[in-house]
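>> received
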Amino acid sequence: MGMLDFVSSWSAGWQWFVGGLVLLSILGLSIPVIIRFLLRVLGVKPMWPSREKWNAHCKPWHEGEPNKGAPELNANLPLHYPGQRWCQMRNMEKGDYYQVDMQKDRLISELHLVCMEGRYPKKYRIEIAKSDAMDSLENLGEYDGPIHHKFKKSRKFRVVKFTIVEPDILEGGGMHSWCIYDVIFTEVRFLRWKVPIGAKS
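>> returned
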């Protein structure tokens, strides 16, 4: 059965709907954009992904550092309890890292680590890896803080690692830790709908 025969078997209403989409597409409008607009008008929301099964880890505490056992050292806090910070509880150092495992490959368009009160590095590196290459991180380059990166073209990966290349050191030597209060990644989903991934409410 050809496509025209298949469509002609539909009700008149659906035939007019498909015909309208094709006409708008010919006029230069993207069909996914049109469908997303119609769904928004109808009040249909995209499926909201969850971070419930995600996990994070960071450079481990080592001998000589203060605050051993402090709850802020738990890298999963900002993932599962937004607003409760992860913090290394010492001055940030070159080589400190924060790594997130999303447990499966996802198509991501934007990465944002919420670091309040300027508590982020001057410069950081982003590395990513897919599920089938967890031990070989791809270096995406170095960027200036704050940590809010938008990809020119969305990338598919499972793991992302943020590493301090240049720490932000306060004049006078006051303590200036790297702290993260929330992790907000934007995933590209059905019909290229971009959805921020939030903690389970």
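>> Strands lie at 55-58, 86-87, 97-114, 123-129, 138-144, 148-166, 179-180, 182-188, 194-197.
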